[in-house]
Amino acid sequence: MSHWPILDAPLPVFIGLTVIGLGFAAIMIGQALALAWKPAWQVVGYGLLLGVSDRFLTFALFQGKLLSLTGYLADTAVLVAIVLVAFRINRAHRMASQYPWLYRRDGLFNWRAVGPDGKNGTNSPP
What we know:
By secondary structure, the protein is mainly alpha-helical. It has three helices and two strands; from the N terminus they run αααββ. It has one domain. The chain has a two-stranded antiparallel ribbon with strand order 1-2.
């Protein structure tokens, strides 16, 4: 298996470890942050920590480069994106299910305010 220059790891390692293995952890982190009503900026911090753990596991298990800036940035970008998607899906679900008299689900990532007549209003969430 040859290393991809941007990933500094073989593609199967990137897909298996980063996307599938730590991607599952990223989904769980996004869900936990949304359910605990944490602010969205914390998603980035946890994503950065996942990127560090991904670099270490790539180094320890598959002889990848530990201190690879491009590998870290590529892995972290994928993991932060997964955490953000999971966070937003869970936050939208939580807003619509916990406050049904105020909000209705508006697609996968969004919610909208209910108007005074009980129909969907035009207000958008902050």
